[in-house]
Amino acid sequence: MFDNLTHWQWIAIAWGQLVVAYVAYLLYLRRVERRAREGEES
Amino acid sequence: MIDSSRDGKRPLWLNLLGLASLALFGVGAYLALFASPPDVNQGDLIRIMYAHVPVAWIGFVAVGVSAVWGMLYLWRSRPIDDVRAVANADAALLFSLLTVVGGMTYSKPTLNTFWTWDAKLTLTALMVALLVGYYIVRGLIEEPQRRARVSAVIMIVVLASLPFNYLAAEWFRTLHPAKSVNLDGSGVTMAPEMLRVLLINVVAAGLVFVYFVSERVRVGKLALSSARERSGFEAAAPATGEVVRVR
């Protein structure tokens, strides 16, 4: 599966990981914040 | 600095910091992908190095900062110190995971293997395992003060492992390349135009780190404030552990 990737495909995977992590962490923080606010209201 | 712990609103400076981190990340990516010359040995694959190395360095920094806040908690038992320790631990885990996955992505096309259990890679895997353990332990201990104390000690252990990780590529035979930038002042074995791109990406990763931690501390303060309103002197914390004893 990974043996036939071109150099630029590997580069795209490496940089894509950073973009995914950036977005995913901010989404995770949204969830933590929402839970904290729900706790505040209960 | 605006205290957003009461209403939890995101202050203007934090929005600007987020935009700045995103902008610099974009600039760093552009320089790495299109402006940097290809390497004489690795060709275009050197562009992965600009993603991998800054993330690894900032992961080390995050562990150090988290350990310092953990030490401060052990010293003065202030809940906000635990909130800050956890915020940095989040970043440490995130950047360390990216270091491992990014390193595998770099290793496969250049060295024809994703992983090998040599000293450098094993110590990095151990660091990630300890950071995962940090959160498992926090999830298992209900008493907030004890949870904060135990997790602070774990992060200090992680910090103690970092010098061995940093020097492992010199002390042992490893697939991991030797350092091109030596912090002991012995020199830089990297072309200046590549070094510039690398340093810009290090600053970008550092700014993202500061933004993530600031945002996490804001959310942690919100949870702390929420717990204060729910209870008197003892406040239970969610599994993520951002809430501890209220004075």
Description:
The complex is a heterodimer of chains A (42) and B (247). Chain A is built from 1 helix and no strands. Chain A is mainly α and 42 residues long. By secondary structure, chain B is mainly α. Chain B contains 6 helices and 2 strands. Chain B has helices spanning 12-35, 46-76, 79-111, 119-140, 144-171, 192-230, and strands at 181-182, 187-188. Chain B has a two-stranded antiparallel ribbon. In chain B, α2 packs parallel to α6 (192-230). Classes of the chains: A mainly alpha (42), B mainly alpha (247). The A-B interface holds A 2, 5, 7-8, 10-11, 13-15, 17-18, 21-22, 25-26, 29, 32-33, 35-37, 39-40, 42 and B 8, 22, 25, 29, 32-33, 43-45, 47-48, 51-52, 55, 90, 94, 97-98, 101-102, 105-106, 108-109, 208, 212, 215-216, 219, 222-223, 225-227, 229-230, 238, 240, 242.
Shape descriptor of chain A reads rod-shaped
List SSEs of chain B in N-to-C order: HHHHHEEH
Stretches of chain A where pLDDT falls below 50 for ≥5 residues?
none
| Mean pLDDT reading of chain B | 88
Read across the widest sheet of chain B, the strand sequence of neighbours is 1-2
- Look at the helices and sheets of chain A and give the structural class: mainly alpha
* Radius of gyration over C-alpha positions of chain B, nearest whole angstrom: 20 Å
Class of secondary structure makeup of chain B = mainly alpha
Helix content of chain B: over 70%
In whole angstroms, the N-to-C terminal distance of chain A is: 50 Å
Q: What summary fits the major beta sheet of chain A?
A: none
Number of helices of chain B: 6
Uncertain spans of chain B, ≥5 residues at pLDDT below 50?
Answer: 1-5, 233-247
Oligomer: heterodimer
Largest sheet of chain B: 2 strands, antiparallel
Give the rounded overall mean pLDDT of chain A.
91
- The number of distinct structural domains of chain B comes to 1
Helicity level of chain A: over 70%
Biggest interface and its residues per chain? A-B, 24 and 39 residues
- Beta strand % of chain A: under 5%
